[in-house]
Write a structure and sequence with these properties.
Distance between the termini: 52 Å
Number of strands: 29
Structural class: alpha+beta
Helix content: 10-25%
């Protein structure tokens, strides 16, 4: 679609009961994520209550009409998804505005391949809206769903704000307040453990939820609320005034940037926002509640696993703690698949947060999850037994899915998957879910299936690495409402990570790995060789699994940093990887890890058998260049001596470069002779590249994981934020 265009959803597909809106992008700069949000607007173009603004601190409503599905890494970047159940949208809501924001001063113009996709419950993309003219905006209205004569339509808007999330929210009637205490403490370098009571905070921004004071004694001073841009800027059309179908008031001209007025709060978050629990449903604000508003706590108390280990009462170091899900005694692949499936499905049914995390990936409604193993179905003259069945019930509707599982190195079988797709269609099941150690990229299923048979049945894939990622986030970062659920999920994690369970995720670079390495050594590799494309695809899968593992352990969204040109699709991206293999014999990728000083670059040289991890850190502002070098060396006092340090100056490749062991003896070796200013330092830790294709001791995948972990633990973790000397 182009900006300003609109289309009825019934023109795209006959029956569209729910849609998934996906904002996707690649990040060449590594500056951080974008966060999708949705606003339910009434006839006046405003929200009827602050709870109708759905974002990372308010991820779903009480009736399940809007559900934030969260971010996940893709083959080239990141995507953020939201599910909209059109049948559950309140009648008073005439429009759903789909927006997004960035933080810490990052702009949408710095993102590449920025687009909004709308798909149905089967995952089929119904429309795409590419954003090509973003520049300095820190918040964006991408599009809106609206009703016209009982029919849902979508319009591509593409309008931006310089004032971030707060300015956007204010224009649509959201009351936003600044947490001055938190800002003062953060500016002074102090940490604050609690936001004001009842505030949903992210960085320096607090979205205040109104409540009705119960008694006069409970009334407090009202919170000052900024005026909207529409009220103070009569010459600028507020986003809420956009008219459907171009009737009445016209949308903004292409490229228009809405500037929020001075009093509006500016988002100045310093870190990745942390998703917290949604506030309980509140009544729409009344005149009395507007006058007696006070912050309310929106984050529920959560239970996570204790970080400190319990006292070890064993008599011998070889003793192993008894586990709820045992991985011992598994004799063959069939037993591994059966136990892994039953264990996972049981955890999904009995830990609501975990079941919702996984079913949301397949556009299932938010509801009660029930799971079944080894269910039997008649299909023609045969009896088929898929590994599992998932059912989700909400408001009289039942969402159903068949599950086919593989563990270890066992691949999915195309004919078996096709039979389950046909079975699902015959029995009215909506989705077939395949689960294996393989990874799906860019919506591609690992198994080719006749797409004509997927008109009514969705075929989705999930990797065991993704299951482990979600379980780890809930156990150790996001938390669960019930302590027993946290323990149960941790038992599942122990099982999935056991070598005998066969659920470790992507662990094999494939049959093409050795022939490609041999061809590179002999100089016979060509861009048209199919094995080279297979290696490029598996390199993307390894990168994505690395993002999942690091993101789960750190509780943040880790994503690839694409340095390719805008508009590059999967085929183009992989062709560039193959070209680099042919020309240089190298595989490379970049990872954006929040909380680190810069993009982590990973490069595997298949000709020399070397693996290098690199990060560039800004130099401290010191008058003398030697002082800048000494500032860095103090931080790297315990870092490995083989770290290579390069002083980056204004001229590319002109700065001096030395090993850390030499710099510890003579720091002046890193000072440029020409008196040039050191702007940053490039730190590189080399290691040996595994020769085998898997995760064994000498395997390539294990060498990549080991190198990244060592670099983060022994080098990056020692670097401190740059501070100026006054």
């Amino acid at each position: 679609m182009s900006k300003g265009g609109n289309v009825a959803l019934t023109e795209l597909k006959d029956d569209v009961a729910s849609v998934v809106l996906t904002l996707s992008w690649s990040d060449p700069t590594g500056e951080g994520d974008a966060d999708i949000s949705v606003l339910l607007l009434g006839p006046d173009g405003k929200v009827s209550r602050d709870e109708d603004f759905y974002f990372y601190n308010n991820p779903t409503d009480e009736n399940g009409s809007v559900q934030m599905l969260g971010k996940s890494p893709t083959g080239s970047g990141t995507e953020d998804r939201v599910l909209v159940d059109l049948g559950a949208v309140p009648a008073v809501a005439e429009r759903l505005v789909v927006a997004a924001s960035r933080y810490a001063g990052a702009t949408f113009g710095a993102l590449a391949d920025l687009k909004l996709l709308l798909s149905d419950h089967t995952g089929e993309t119904l429309l795409s809206f590419d954003i090509t003219d973003a520049s300095v905006e820190t918040a964006f209205v991408f599009g809106e769903l609206y009703r016209r004569s009982g029919v849902w339509k979508f319009r591509a808007v593409g309008q931006g704000y310089r004032s971030g999330l707060a300015g956007l929210a204010t224009d649509f009637g959201i009351d936003v307040a600044q947490d001055e205490t938190e800002e003062a403490e953060q500016d002074s370098g102090c940490e604050t453990s609690d936001s004001p009571e009842g505030a949903a905070t992210t960085g320096h921004e607090t979205v205040v939820v109104p409540v009705q004071a119960q008694t006069p004694d409970e009334a407090v001073n009202p919170v000052p609320v900024p005026a909207t841009a529409a009220a103070e800027n009569s010459g600028v059309l507020a986003a809420g005034a956009l008219a459907p179908d171009g009737e009445g008031t016209q949308p903004h001209a292409p490229g228009t940037v809405l500037l929020a007025p001075g009093p509006a709060v500016t988002v100045t978050a310093d870190s990745v926002p942390t998703q917290v629990a949604a506030a309980p449903a509140l009544a729409p604000p009344t005149a009395t509640s507007k006058a007696a508003r006070r912050p309310v706590r929106t984050a529920k108390r959560r239970s996570t696993l204790p970080r400190a280990p319990k006292v070890d009462l064993s008599d011998h170091p070889n003793w192993r703690a008894a586990r709820l899900f045992s991985a011992s005694g598994l004799r063959n692949d069939q037993e591994r698949e059966t136990r892994a499936t039953s264990t996972l499905l049981a955890a999904m049914a009995h830990v609501p947060e975990f079941g919702r995390r996984l079913t949301a990936k397949f556009n299932a409604p938010a509801g009660t999850v029930q799971t079944f193993a080894e269910a039997s179905f008649r299909h023609g003259d045969a009896t088929l037994r898929p590994d599992g069945v998932i059912r989700v019930a909400r408001a009289g509707r039942i969402w159903t899915a068949l599950v086919e599982t593989k563990t270890g190195g066992n691949p999915l079988k195309p004919d078996q998957v096709q039979r389950y797709v046909d079975l699902a269609g015959k029995h009215g099941y909506e989705t077939v879910i395949t689960l294996s150690n393989d990874l799906a990229l860019d919506g591609e299923h690992p198994v080719p299936v006749d797409k004509r048979r997927l008109r009514k049945v969705a075929l989705r894939h999930l990797s065991w690495a993704e299951v482990t990622h979600e379980a780890h986030l809930l156990c150790h970062h996001d938390g669960l409402a019930n302590p027993a659920h946290a323990w149960l999920l941790n038992e599942l994690l122990h099982y999935l990570r056991h070598d005998n369970a066969g659920c470790q995720g992507f662990q094999n670079m494939g049959a093409s790995w050795v022939p490609v390495r041999t061809a590179i050594t002999e100089g016979t590799l060509r861009a048209t060789d199919r094995p080279a494309m297979h290696v490029a695809e598996n390199w993307e899968k390894l990168t994505r699994q690395l993002c999942l593992r690091l993101g789960g352990s750190r509780g943040v969204t880790v994503a690839p940093v694409s340095r390719g040109r805008r508009g590059g699709d999967a085929a183009t991206r992989r062709a560039e990887t193959v070209a680099a293999l042919v020309e240089t014999g190298r595989l490379s990728t970049g990872l954006r890890i929040p909380g680190t000083p810069g993009t982590l670059l990973l490069e595997a040289d298949l000709r020399t058998g070397r693996l290098e991890t690199t990060v560039e850190v800004a130099s401290a502002e010191r008058a003398r260049q030697l002082s800048r070098v000494q500032w860095l060396l103090r931080q790297l006092a315990e870092a490995p001596a083989e770290v290579r340090v390069e002083a980056v100056t204004g001229r590319p490749g002109a700065g001096p470069c030395e090993l850390l062991r030499m710099l510890r003896q003579e720091p002046g070796l890193l000072v440029p002779d020409a008196g040039e200013e050191i702007t940053s330092f490039r730190l590189t830790l080399p290691s040996t590249l595994g020769t085998r294709r898997g995760t064994e001791e000498t395997g390539f995948i294990r060498s990549v994981n080991t190198a990244v972990d060592r670099f983060l633990d022994e080098v990056v973790s020692r670097l401190k934020p740059v501070t100026a000397v006054v």
